[in-house]
Amino acid sequence: MVYPVRIYALRINNEQCSTIVTAPPEPLPRRPGKKGIWLLCHWVPMYLLAHVMAGILIGLVLAGFVGDRRVVALAALGAVLPDLIDKPLGHIVLAGTVNYGRIYFHGLTILFLVVLAGLLLYHYHQRIGLLAVAVGMASHQILDGMWHNPVTWFWPFLGPVPRHYYPEHYLWDAIWRQLSQSSEWVLLFLIIGLFAVLYRRELTTAINRLASPPARRAVVAVLVLAVIAALAAGWRFLL
Asked: How many structural domains is the chain composed of?
């Protein structure tokens, strides 16, 4: 049986517990918290670039086995893919029904389908890229501790993902929290440095291509759009 839960912001033992179940229909394990409130704690997840870094480390190990540096970027992509898909999907597209950022791509069903597709691709075309993405996705689920949320992890076999009630603009606030973390900026520069060293040949080729005037104009246009987007996002956070 799956029951809806209401989400509040609460800190317990210096960690954020976001899921609070009041008046449960069945006895639930009690967590440290306010008297008379039953808590199912959903602890603060790893930030985005921490997942990317984990994917890079896994990709480096894979690259040592298969001799292909491209799997590093693909493993890093897989490590961040669940959040890139599930959080906008859950908190924006499905805000009226689920309103949760750990849904389908945080579950074993989608992971199994990606692994299966990767095995078929490797069997018929000897391409390991999709399997590297799958390994990155698996690392994301492990680091998020998805076994603590079996309904989502084993979706759809234990029932639908329950509806959650996060505050309005929760996703934007979460993005702002990540941007304000100094550790994320440290990881950003570290990741940029690692990719610059790992893909220095490809980077050199790309820089040489930018010597043409059309390529320079395209880069300037992209940078202008990025600045406009950053200003728009910053203005949104100030409101």
From this structure: 2
Could you tell me the two tokens for 88? 């906008």
- Tell me: do 83 and 65 sit in the same domain: yes
Handedness of CA 108, 109, 115, 116 (dihedral sign): positive
The pLDDT of 117-146, averaged and rounded, is 94
Q: HSE (CB half, 13 Å, CA atoms) of 24?
A: 16
Whole-angstrom Cα distance, residue 210 to residue 190? Answer: 24
Helices (H), the chain: 48-66, 70-88, 108-125, 129-143, 150-153, 170-179, 182-198, 200-209, 213-238
The single-letter DSSP state of residue 211 is T
Is 238 among the domain residues? no
pTM: 0.70
Question: What are phi and psi for residue 123, nearest 5 degrees?
Answer: -65, -40
Domain region containing 85: 48-171+189-212
Residue 137 has pLDDT above 90, yes or no: yes
Token pair 């790893």 in the structure block, residue = 46
3-state SS track over 42-75: CCCCCCHHHHHHHHHHHHHHHHHHHCCCHHHHHH
